[in-house]
Amino acid sequence: MGVNLVSRAIVLSTLACSAWVASAADAIVLSYSGNPDYPPYHWCRDNQGLTGASVEQLQLILPAKVKLRPQLYPWKRVLQRAENGQIDIVLPLRINAERARYLRFSQNPAFENPIAIFVRKGQNIPYQGWHSLKPYRGGISLGDIFGDGFDQYLAANLTVESAQDMASNFRKLELGRIDYFITGRYVGVAYLKQRQLANIIVDLPQPVSVSKIHIGFGKHVPDEVIKEIDKALRKMADNGASTALLKKWVNIYAESKDTGCF
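Below the sequence we write its predicted structure tokens.
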């Protein structure tokens, strides 16, 4: 697990290119990106590039012949560029029908990503299922999906407001402008620890969904590369390395002073 991230750091490129084969070195170069505001899985560090558990995991499981070319954009643009074939690997995300139109996904999940309900500490929301949220006003971040049928239920039955990002939603929750905010448990806990808000905002024990997240691959990624990555993901899951990596990066993010991007 000990990976020297500094020695393996990749200089952020501003070139927008898809996969190409450098015949002289016989190396496959793949562009990658992800949500720049999704710690501890991945986030943008001080406008310098992406870091986090997903970035380290990708470096660990990447076949030796593959080289990475990072790209950095707001999340919705990342998905647009992936759809247009301009990004080859999307760091772990949920699978839905829309994304499956233009991405292939690893068969094995990269990480667990339970979706939690965050509320102000002491606020009485007696949660016993999705229907318990009907009397309250909630918040979600643009571009987020939650899986297990909750997205459809939310759209049809719940009163929610969309905000640009997690920071905006937690601020609205802190100010009482919304009653709850829905996001990934690890993501929310990492954010609250880093901002020293864990005594003000807490997550409810029961998740709204328990789906996992998978690495997305564009049409230019060779099948053999995907197969090798899938084998490595399975090995990391079986030996507990994926969970350990995630917990490690929760603590790293909690201690960081990153200013983020965009």
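The first helix runs from residue 53 to 61.
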